[in-house]
Design goal:
With 765 residues, this protein is α+β, with helices and mostly antiparallel strands. It is built from 24 helices and 30 strands.
């Protein structure tokens, strides 16, 4: 493997994999004792006991704790085991050494079946009592709480902590969404400020951040310390390295120590700032010489960090208060608009400007099914659809947000100037309802504390080591393809908007379901009524027809010509009425009868239909054209035969040309969509093939195109063009719809008509 290839295999996760919670080492300024929780037998001990306790590790191992501390102090520790350790630490303990009593701060915590006792020499003899603590903290807490902004609060904190501890430099370090951090407040005696500098996420690896959430305060009195091993190295009960996550003496990662040394820091202390159970940032303290801070003072600093953590939410709530009021006003407008609309798209489109202002975006796209509506500056529709397809698996709780889209989605580089930032909302995955907001690229200059790219060292054995940075001088970088970050209040507004939209969509779905139910019930009742009415009407109608014939036969000699004519009219009208009733009865049955689907060769069926019509109408000379053999499909043979019969017979009937012709064919799917989108007919998405019957007949005027499928609607006189009931095209439409298709017509008067229809069935072209 070449050196170039080796470099490609290194990434910043090398630091993230360092097991810093089980180093097996502690810092030398205190002693660690691992005790059995029930017997308080000493199971492990750090190897610096001789220096601090005047006893070797071997003398202590396997012995009861009372042998070191005495019975009274052991009873004190036992009473603490049932309490919250944070409320009892530190314990004021003393140990006899060379005929003198040494004071220690005892820090206790539990780890599974073990008790960890850490002893730090109490260098300051006096202990801070409650009243001293109260007076020391009262003014500081008041200033922190009254600070009008987040930055002013941070500045109050760094000044207070530096005054209490005496560190050379105290900073507030805030993490961003990508894990990088920046110094937002500073109090220092040094000439070179760190305020405003940014540091990469690799400076504080992921597992280190996790430990900061467990331990609120971390002290390193001297980065040049020699770490002290535990005896024995592994816990004798578990035979595993001891988890020191909660230990205040836990030895620090060598990489971190090297990092501090490169920075010129000799002592450091970090206080965690937690918001919503996540690490928001740190109060970072640096000193240029060794510096030990007593546990009591550390407790004061930790308390300040906890108060500040509570105030973070309050300060965040007060930030951009006018902007948040504006967002609430916009939300009210959306509620009013959406409560009065039948579809959420219509309601939102009434508030295009407000839709952008809601999250301070420059463009937005609303997607519903196959429809996309663009507002403001947005990528091309094809780019939006591709982005949405990529984005769908990346939604987290129906939300997706980024300020640098091209980093995760390289295809976005082509439109990063208008859409580097994306905030997307998934309203309904089932109905494909989405809203996407866009922000443009903002080119920024970022001030880093040194080059953020960690150097890679190739060691003597050709292994690779990610080493800490050695330079922390100002290092500027021009950042492209990034937008301004989405504010928490904007994301919250979008989440509230989704709840509102989901309510509208669900309401509309309920209304649609109710309408469909009522429509189905109405259709069933109408079919039943048509069947019963048609059946019951036929009996009296036949009586009228028969009695009119009887009158003409029995009283022919007594009736004058006018009377006979009137009776003939009655017979003719009853016959026509019976034809209408039969058509209505057939139409109602057609809606209720089950389709008998089977594989049908349409080419054979159409040729048989043509042969039957030619025999039935020998007087009509018609040229039949079939450009290509028709395919096989799954359908009801009898119904589709009737469909072609009605369309072809109408094409024959309504043709007064000397040379008549009729063309029967089909259009493949792509051709159908192209034809439908030409503007000459409704835009449809055809599930299968589109069939047609075309003629050169009399045509249909444009104003009647939407009427010809209505039942009993004739455009000509009752007896013109061979007469008829006017139900044929209505029945044809019913057959097509029962097959899940659509039927429509294109026509030019005096030139001819083309009837198109689709059948939603499997094809085998």
């Amino acid at each position: 493997m070449s050196d170039e290839t080796l470099n490609l295999t290194v990434d910043l996760t090398n630091c993230d994999r360092e097991p810093i919670h089980i180093p097996g080492l502690v810092q030398p300024h205190g002693v660690l004792l691992v005790l059995h929780s029930s017997t308080l037998e000493i199971l492990q001990v750090s190897r610096n006991t001789l220096e601090l306790l005047d006893r070797t590790a071997e003398e202590l191992l396997g012995q009861p704790l009372a042998g070191l501390l005495g019975d009274e102090q052991v009873k004190l520790i036992q009473r603490c085991l049932a309490k919250d350790f944070e409320s009892v630490n530190p314990l004021n303990l003393s140990i006899e050494r060379q005929h003198q009593s040494l004071a220690f701060d005892g820090i206790v915590h539990r780890l599974d079946a073990f008790i960890l006792l850490e002893l730090e020499p109490n260098i300051i003899e006096s202990h801070t009592n409650f009243f001293d603590f109260y007076h020391q903290m009262k003014g500081a807490i008041t200033r922190i709480q009254k600070a009008p902004t987040l930055l002013e609060m941070c500045q109050e904190v760094v000044e207070e902590v530096r005054q209490i501890t005496g560190f050379d430099r105290v900073m507030v370090y805030q993490f961003d969404a990508e894990g990088s951090g920046s110094v937002i407040a500073e109090d220092t005696i040094h000439e070179t400020p760190y305020l405003g500098l940014r540091y990469p996420s690799s400076d504080i690896p992921q597992q280190a951040r996790h430990l900061y959430t467990l331990n609120w305060l971390r002290l390193i009195p001297d980065v040049s310390y020699q770490p002290v091993a535990l005896a024995p190295v592994n816990n004798p009960v578990t035979q595993q390295p001891l988890d020191l996550s909660l230990s205040v003496l836990r030895s620090v990662s060598p990489l971190h120590l090297e990092y501090l040394q490169n920075m010129g820091v000799t002592a450091s202390m970090s206080i965690s700032l937690i918001q919503d159970q996540k690490l928001w940032g740190l109060i970072a303290c640096h000193h240029s010489s060794p510096k030990y801070i007593s546990y009591n003072i550390r407790t004061v600093c930790e308390f300040i960090g906890q108060v500040m953590s509570i105030e973070l939410a309050n300060k965040a709530a007060s930030e951009d208060s006018d902007y948040k009021v504006h967002i609430k006003t916009l939300q009210t407008q959306f509620i009013e608009a959406l409560s009065q609309t039948e579809h959420f798209l219509n309601g939102i489109m009434q508030l295009e400007t407000e839709l952008l202002q809601l999250v301070n975006a420059t463009g937005a796209v609303l997607c519903s099914g196959s429809q996309c509506i663009c507002v403001g500056e947005t990528p091309a529709e094809a780019d939006v659809r591709a982005l949405l397809d990529w984005m769908k698996p990346h939604f987290v709780q129906s939300l997706f947000e980024t300020r640098s889209l091209s980093k995760a989605y390289p295809a976005a580089e082509s439109f990063q100037a208008i859409a580097s930032g994306v905030l997307a909302l998934e309203i309904s995955k089932v109905h494909h309802n989405y809203i996407l907001w866009f922000r443009p690229e903002v080119i920024q200059t970022v001030n880093w504390g040194g080059n953020p790219n960690k150097p890679v060292e190739v060691l003597a054995d050709n292994s690779l080591r990610m080493s800490p940075r050695r330079s922390f001088d100002l290092w500027q970088e021009t950042v492209r393809a990034s937008a301004l970050p989405w504010k928490p209040c904007e994301i919250a507004a979008v989440i509230e908007l989704r709840s509102l939209l989901v309510g509208v969509v669900l309401r509309q779905a309920d209304e649609l379901a109710l309408m469909n139910f009522e429509l189905q019930r109405s259709n069933e009742e109408l079919d039943s009524f048509a069947y019963i009415a048609s059946h019951d009407l036929k009996e009296p109608l036949r009586g009228i027809h028969n009695y009119a014939n009887f009158l003409m036969e029995d009283y022919a000699t007594e009736l004058d010509s006018n009377g006979v004519t009137k009776l003939q009219t009655i017979v003719r009208l009853t016959q026509r009425m019976e034809d209408l009733i039969n058509s209505l009865l057939y139409f109602s049955r057609l809606g209720r009868a089950e389709l008998m689907r089977q594989t049908v060769n349409l080419d054979e069926l159409v040729h048989q239909t043509i042969a039957t019509l030619t025999i039935a109408r020998p007087q009509d000379e018609v040229e039949f054209r079939i450009p290509q053999p028709l395919p096989e499909i799954e359908c009801d043979r009898a119904r589709v035969n009737e469909l072609f019969t009605n369309l072809i017979s109408n094409a024959i009937k309504y043709n007064n040309k000397a040379e008549k012709w009729i063309e029967i064919g089909y259009i493949p799917g792509e051709g159908a969509e192209e034809m439908a989108g030409s503007g000459r007919s409704p835009i449809l998405t055809f599930p299968t093939l589109t069939f047609y019957v075309r003629d050169n007949g009399i045509g249909i005027p444009p104003e009647h195109l939407d009427k010809i499928f209505q039942i009993f609607r004739r455009l000509h006189g009752r007896d013109d063009f061979g007469g008829g009931t006017g139900a044929g095209l209505t029945i044809a439409r019913k057959i097509v719809e029962r097959h899940g298709g659509k039927i429509w017509v294109e026509s030019v008067p005096a030139e001819g008509s083309t009837f198109y229809f689709t059948l939603a069935a499997e094809t085998d072209a």
